[in-house]
Amino acid sequence: MKFFNFRKKDTNDGNCCSCSSENKSSNDESCDLLVLGGGCQKCNNLENNLIEALKEMDLNLSVGHVTDFEKIAAYGVMQTPALVYKGKVLLTGTQTDKNSLINLLKKEIF
């Protein structure tokens, strides 16, 4: 069963990927979870750990990656990477391992 599509570079709208759910469009408002960051290794690691956490939890949530710093600042985020769930900033300035993300998501989603 296919749950996730992987990142595709899109420099036009500040998102470096489309949402990772087959039923979502590429604009960031339609994604359940957003990784905010310029595309550095820490941001990419957070995104990869997040995808692995969602797979392990068997959750079919969409993941987007916003690279436009004006859009990132609009969330009030000054340090990246950051993680946003349905408009709420959950993490800033840190990359987190898969198990910590699982614990965080359990608190926020359930």
Describe the fold and architecture.
This protein is of the alpha+beta class. The protein has a domain at 28-102: Glutaredoxin (3-Layer(aba) Sandwich). Helices cover 32% and strands 15% of the residues. The chain contains three helices and four strands, in the order βαβαββα. It has helices spanning 41-57, 69-74, 98-109; strands spanning 33-36, 63-66, 82-85, 88-92. The protein has a four-stranded mixed beta sheet with strand order 2-1-3-4. Strand 3 (82-85) and strand 4 (88-92) form a beta hairpin. Helix 1 packs across helix 3. The protein is globular, with a radius of gyration of 12 Å. The two termini are 23 Å apart. Mean pLDDT is 81; it is low at 1-18 and 20-27.
Distance between the termini: 23 Å
What share of residues are in beta strands? 15-25%
Query: Which whole number gives the mean pLDDT?
Result: 81
Radius of gyration: 12 Å
Summarize this entry quickly.
By secondary structure, this protein is an alpha+beta fold. The chain has helices at 41-57, 69-74, 98-109; strands at residues 33-36, 63-66, 82-85, 88-92. The protein has 3 helices and 4 strands, in the order E-H-E-H-E-E-H.
